[in-house]
Amino acid sequence: MSLGPDYTDAYEITEDDRKLVTAFRRQPIGQHSPALQRILVKMRGEPIKGKYVLICQEYHKKWALAQMTGNPENPIEIVEERVFSNLEDAEWEVFKRRWEKYTGRDLAE
Amino acid sequence: MMKITGYGDRYSVRPGETVRFMVSCDGLERYRADIVRVINGDTNPAGPGFNEELVETPVNGDYPGHKQEINAGSYVAVSGGASVSCLTSIHVQAMIWPTTPEKREQALIAKWAADEEAGFALTIDTSGCLALKIGDGAGQTETVSTGVALLAREWYFVAASFDAADGHVTLVQECLARYARTNMQSRVVAKVGVRPAMNNGAPLMMGAWQNRQEGDRIVAAAHYNGKIDMPRIAARPLSADEMMVARATAAPHLEGVLIGAWDFSKEIDTTRVIDTSPNQLHGEVINLPARAMKGHNWTGQEMNWTNAPEQYGAIHFHDDDIYDAGWQADFEFTVPKALKSGFYAARFTAGAEEERVPFFVVPPKDRANAPLALLVPTASYMAYANDHGMLMSADAELGMGRLVVLQPQDLFLGKHPEFGRSLYDTHADGSGVCLSSRLRPMLNMRPKYQSWNGAMGSSLWQYNADTHIVAWLEATGQSYDVITDEELHAEGSSLLARYRAVMTCSHPEYYSTDMLDSVQTYVNDGGRLIYMGSNGFYWRIAFHKSLPGVIEVRRAEGGCRTWHAEPGEYYHSFSGEFGGLWLRQGRPPQKLVGVGFTAEGFDLCSYYLRASDSFDPRAAFIFDGVGKDERIGDFGLIGGGAAGLEIDRADRALGTPPHALVLASSKEHTDNYLVVPEDIYCMRLNITASTSPLVRADMVFYETPGGGAVFSTGSIAWSGSLLHNGCDNNVSRVTQNVVRRFVSDEPFTDAG
């Protein structure tokens, strides 16, 4: 399994980007402004190790948060019991975690 | 979950014929089997819901569960080699191109019975170095290693000998490339006290050794990843000069010295490997390693192995190759004469566990039971079988424009590499998977299964998405037969000629030459083709000449692809034909269906607006009941619209007939939709939906000179909108209008 290059270094999220967060919250999946798209390319293009994914536990009802390990023998791990009842909530949760990872700032601040 | 898995020996069956089901139960003592007719595999509560009908058959009932294993990994087995079994001294050599030398102990050439630790094995040891392992079968083994790690993806000459006279082992490891400051050559001589027990019951093998034997079945282990070219075996240590002679040509003249000299460039399209020595120790490939692979002597002057087979003497073995899982059958089902043609499955249940193994009941040979045939793209289902893209790819989420959602089947595949991969994946050693078989459980081609790339909503792809079409045909009372790619490949256009109209499914992407010729002939001869999807007729594939249920793709030159074939390996081993896109072979899909792959995106789908051509009187029948400004398909279970996932465009320059009507085009795709790479020569910023006019689905209609016609939707997501509002919607209406006219006796006129 090739872990591939790390594209996340190509753009650094700035404090000025915080104004884009509302638009993501409103529509996490679909058409985005170029500025928001650039942030999402960074976040969604993360390398495989530690990357968030969802595991469907009940069709159309229940999804659990998991992470990819980068280990071909055991590619997915549920790291904590975090379950969502819709995909948009899951997108928001992962967006917040990634925002904090790249900026060191909590979006709730 | 996933405690029951299974597969059938047939994908399509005629009335009176029999399909056998192989089932494995993990920890379940019993399971129930029922035959069901699959009508709608989609569980989405926003749609009409999952729908299957129980079929009363004599095989429905309880069965004892038993676990069955898959022994994946390819190798060559040479059985019946008495001349090898009686050897005391021995010499082996080969050219090798290892791809994962660091992974674990791997057998290159071995006559090794692992359960008795008996025989000899030329290996890559756990340190990634060439080694010779000798076992006397009485508890004593010795291994001699070069101690120099092999470099991945470099050609080496390797040799090892054991001299029974003095117990000397000689190892030679010689890299054909030369790098400064790197140890490229090694020659080791050592004395050992152990004698190899050659008469150990194990066959001579290349690419693995025998772990144990179960009946007449070899359970192999120590699988090697990489290429082997020109393996040889001799009855005594060879001199340096003799080794050079043995590696100089495919059939070296060392009479009385070489016991076996295999030329893997012979009979490439079979499962045989040929020994050019007088002993004729011919072998068989197991689990279909990749053949027609360029050898150590490939010059780069010739790209087509059929023109220079002597440069294509390598076989590339993979530890996750799988052809036939080889399970024992639990039961067999003979299709009753009266059973309606359609989508069926063997349903297995045990408590909360459930699994369905799909099969298709096709009409009796030489007969059609309906004016319309639904052509099921089983070759394309095989191409996607056990897709690992969501488990192995860092850019899956980027491609989807949303978090990747995994199903229990995906998690199971992540832990069970022996179930094999899809034509979208790379092997464990990073090389592209170019062969895919249906003789193994295909866990993602199932009712209920949701695909990571099936867009928001129902998230369906291929098999399960196509059940939307089945549900629609049923709901609207169409009279239809189901036929599949395998009949199309085998029987040709005469199969299609029995039908007034043929309807494709949502994504008929993979076409053999015979399949494409047959559909083209059908259209030329006055057939009516309803192309319900997109990215169809795209990749050329080859079926194996003698093995059932396996296809090959060589991803050559261009196209939207997750791996690409190595330079010089663009020609199929099964057929000798050039691989890659039909577009690159002068047959773009536009020539057949008026449209061809133009863009893809996987988050949301969109809608069409009618174009001026839709008001041409020739197209009036299509839009009967559809308003002039209506948005067509601004609803649906797949991404919320009828236009999306993968989309096709009309293009006169690529062969869209000059009189074709472009009836409607899609609008407002998200920027997750990007132009396909075959349309990009230089990289520019205008390849997204909001910047490129090429990102659109075109709906096309045209008549053919033979009184036939073609209607194309240009979108994979089309079928996801058919069932909306109880099939009372404009996507359903347009489709129904087309079907009604296409199955009628009235010819289309090409006058005018």
Note down, in words, how this protein is organized.
- Chain A is of the alpha+beta class and 109 residues long.
- In chain A, 31% of the residues lie in helices and 17% in strands.
- Chain A has helices spanning 21-26, 34-44, 87-103, and strands spanning 52-58, 62-68, 76-77, 83-84.
- In chain A, strands 1, 2, 3 and 4 form a four-stranded antiparallel beta sheet that branches.
- Chain A is globular, with a radius of gyration of 14 Å.
- The model of chain A has no long low-confidence stretch (mean pLDDT 92).
- Chain B is mainly β and 752 residues long.
- Chain B has two domains: 75-317, Jelly Rolls (Sandwich); 376-742, no CATH class.
- Chain B contains twelve helices and 45 strands.
- Chain B has a 16-stranded antiparallel beta sheet that branches.
- The longest helix of chain B has 13 residues, at 463-475.
- Chain A binds chain B through residues 1-4, 28-32, 37, 40-41, 44-48, 51-56, 59-60, 63, 66, 68, 72-76, 87, 90-91, 94, and chain B through 43-45, 390-395, 397-398, 401-408, 411, 414-415, 417, 426, 428, 430, 448, 450, 456, 603-604, 670-671, 690.
- Strand 1 of chain A pairs parallel with strand 29 (405-406) of chain B, so a sheet runs across the interface.
Helix and strand composition category of chain A = alpha+beta
Strand count, sense and closure of the main sheet of chain B? 16 strands, antiparallel
Share of residues in helices of chain B: 10-25%
- How many strands, what sense, and barrel or not for the largest sheet of chain A? 4 strands, antiparallel
What is the string of helix and strand elements of chain A?
A: HHEEEEH
Taken together, the total number of domains of chain B comes to: 2
